[in-house]
Amino acid sequence: MPVIELHLIAGYDDDAKARLGRGLTDAVRQVVPAPPEAITVMMTEHAPADWMRGGERRAPAPALPDPETLVRGFLAAMEARDLETARRCIADGFEMRFPGAAPMHRLEELVAWAAPRYRFVRKTIEATETAITGGATAVWIHGTLSGEWPDGTAFEGIRFVDRFLLEGGLIARQDVWNDIAERRASGDAGA
Asked: 155: which strand partners?
């Protein structure tokens, strides 16, 4: 039964500590074949006055936002075409890659690129998976698309997968795969 002992500077809220505990449990399970209930994570908090690094007292860094919550918020803002809110979720140098399109770096580029393809699109998210990769966090979201073609005909049930790469608590890259071009070419609006 693995036991992890973690020392934290006091100041992280309960949500951040719960996410940290789940993340450490998942990290152990990638190496040790133990069920989650067999892994113990113990956190000890220390007052800022009770520790030093480099001979100086330090304050804890703020917790990063929950990656899944950030990505879902970004997608909701994009669906509502609330570009200002969506922009707060992305990092400098942000890159988007969509099927059949050159890389885009500005949200307005995506809106312009999508305009002749569909009036609007909505995502029904079926699953979300989060993983640490190198120094970044990858969030995979998959499900189905629904919306309207430019002529107003409705479509639904189109598969999609989005992969987001987060660095420093912001979205640095979005890669998109979906069957929208195939469905549109076939003239099938979906069932």
From this structure: 147
Which one, of 92, 91, 72, lies nearest residue 162 by Cα? 72
Enumerate the β-bridge partners of residue 125.
143
Distance CA 124, CA 50 (A): 48
The pTM of this model reads 0.85
**162 token code pair:** 């989005």
- Strand 136-148 with 120-133, pairing: antiparallel
Sign of CA dihedral 89, 168, 58, 25: positive
Rounded to the nearest 10 degrees, how much is the dihedral formed by the CA atoms of 140, 145, 182, 185? Answer: -160
Provide the token pair at 177. Answer: 């795969």
For 136-177, write each residue's pLDDT tens digit: 999 999 999 999 999 999 999 999 999 999 999 999 999 999
| b/e per residue 118-154 (b: at least 16 CB within 10 A) | beebebeeeebebeeeeeebbbebbebbbbebeeeee
Confirm if 165 and 137 have CB atoms less than 8 A apart: yes
Residue appearing with tokens 């994009």? 78
Q: Which residue has the tokens 């040790």?
A: 32
Q: Is the pLDDT of residue 191 over 60?
A: no
- Tell me which of 159 and 60 has the higher pLDDT: 159
Q: Which residues contact 62 (CB under 8 A, 6 or more apart)?
A: none
Q: Tokens for 153?
A: 């005909």
The residue length of the chain stands at 191
